[in-house]
């Protein structure tokens, strides 16, 4: 949400509507750090991002964090979940979904970005997870482009032996999405996206089924998702068969797609030996977190 005043009004209304508001860890980076630390206790997790006092208290104590990105007041995300058929004024929800809004000051700040890449050099991780780039959307175009250039420069300096996963976030600016597609996505090894993001990528770059954006009620049919993922991986993925091709220097080899009804993984090359187990684990976690499904079987594609 571009207006800070409007967002603060939304937060006040949400807090007033709920007698005892509940707060949870939010944001892709913090959520993944929390899940990794909880699920794999022997793994050392280093989180770089804006951390306020409430986040500090909620995070798993084993998650390492830097004091350089501490903030005095937590940045909140407001999530509105609704079922199919629920009404809001004159609107009727065509399908069950959720609406997430925020107004982040610090997630896309230069200080956080610099500390992130500095931590990579010092921490020497076995895996790098990048998220939060979508929070740059409401910066002016010149600042946005400069920060994307800085991110790209630093990504190119990370060893090819250290896999980079990029978790894309929802955004609405076509120019910004186009820039992310061409400047960032080819230089990560793995990409996580949902149906809105995939359809938008295809829309801004003239890919298959570009008319699917914006995604309306329900989900995109699986065969269309397959064709869009195939296009994305072939166009912006690594290709070592032709040294003269621009794709020869790219890194992208894996895309993990998820929506409310199914998940899908596509990959190229032989560097990913745990695709099936990773997909199964993700589906189980998604069912547990989003729908409180514990024992039910999740369908995998």
TrEMBL record:
Presence of keyword Kinase: yes
Entry-linked InterPro entries: ADP_PFK/GK, Ribokinase-like
Biological process annotations from GO: glucose metabolic process; glycolytic process
Stretch forming the signal peptide: none
Protein name: Uncharacterized protein
Xref: Gene3D superfamilies: 3.40.1190.20
Lineage: Eukaryota, Metazoa, Ecdysozoa, Nematoda, Chromadorea
Record's keyword terms, sorted: Glycolysis, Kinase, Magnesium, Metal-binding, Transferase
PROSITE patterns, A to Z: ADPK
One term of GO molecular function: ADP-specific glucokinase activity
Record-level GO cellular component terms: endoplasmic reticulum
């Amino acid at each position: 949400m571009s207006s800070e005043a409007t967002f603060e009004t939304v937060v006040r209304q949400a807090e007033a509507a709920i007698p005892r508001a509940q707060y949870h860890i939010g944001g892709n980076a913090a959520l993944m750090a929390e899940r990794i630390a909880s699920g794999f206790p022997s793994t050392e997790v280093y989180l770089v991002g804006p951390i306020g006092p409430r986040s500090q208290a909620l995070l798993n104590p084993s998650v390492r964090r830097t004091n350089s990105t501490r903030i005095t007041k937590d940045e909140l995300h407001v999530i509105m979940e609704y079922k199919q058929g629920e009404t809001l004024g004159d609107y009727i929800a065509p399908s069950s979904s959720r609406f997430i809004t925020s107004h982040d000051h610090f997630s896309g700040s230069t200080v956080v970005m610099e500390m992130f890449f500095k931590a990579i050099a010092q921490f020497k991780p076995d895996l790098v997870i990048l998220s939060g780039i979508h929070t740059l959307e409401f910066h002016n175009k010149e600042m946005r482009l400069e920060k994307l250039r800085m991110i790209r420069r630093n990504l190119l300096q990370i060893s090819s032996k250290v896999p980079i996963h990029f978790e894309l976030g929802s955004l609405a600016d076509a120019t910004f999405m186009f820039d992310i597609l061409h400047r960032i996505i080819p230089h990560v090894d793995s990409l996580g996206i949902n149906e809105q993001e995939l359809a938008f990528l295809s829309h801004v770059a003239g890919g298959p089924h570009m008319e699917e954006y914006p995604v309306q009620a329900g989900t995109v049919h699986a065969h269309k998702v397959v064709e869009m993922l195939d296009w994305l991986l072939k166009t912006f993925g690594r290709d070592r068969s032709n040294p003269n091709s621009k794709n020869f220097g790219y890194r992208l080899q894996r895309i993990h797609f998820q929506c409310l009804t199914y998940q899908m993984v596509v990959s190229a090359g032989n560097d990913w030996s745990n695709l099936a187990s990773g997909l199964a684990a993700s589906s189980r976690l998604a069912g547990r977190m989003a729908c409180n499904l514990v024992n039910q079987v999740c369908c995998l594609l």
